[in-house]
Amino acid sequence: MSVVSIQKPYTITEVLAIYRTVKQEIEAHGKEIQRALELAEASGLGMGGDYAVRFMEERLLALKQHTWRALLTASGVEKVLSVSRLERFEDFLRGNGYGYQSVPEPSEEAVQELLAGGAAKELFAEMIRESFDFLRPGTTWHSQYKTNKKTGVSS
Prior knowledge:
Layout: H1 12-42, H2 51-75, H3 83-93, H4 108-116, H5 120-135
């Protein structure tokens, strides 16, 4: 039987519970692989190195990033984020310029802190403003195809 249930998690609590379970499994299997490689090295097979450690770190980082995306979806905030906020969220998942290793551990407190960074009303207003600017004639995206005046409709 699989460690993870087939049903897609819908709440923040469910996403975090599955994250913790998968993280424990990755860590346990990473340690088993490392022990096997050490045994092979000790017996002269020369398979040593830090492959298992690197593999485990890469998988744990990918798990963190995917968990944060799932948490954004589970919270429902994703539906009211503007494109610029989504881009900042992707930067957050890349470590905000400090490298992937600086992506924070997903937790209830971290989710609350992330969501508190923009109140729902503010996020919704930002999304509406961005949509309006995108559609309004002017110097924005594909403005050469927009034929209306910037402040009103032509007569």
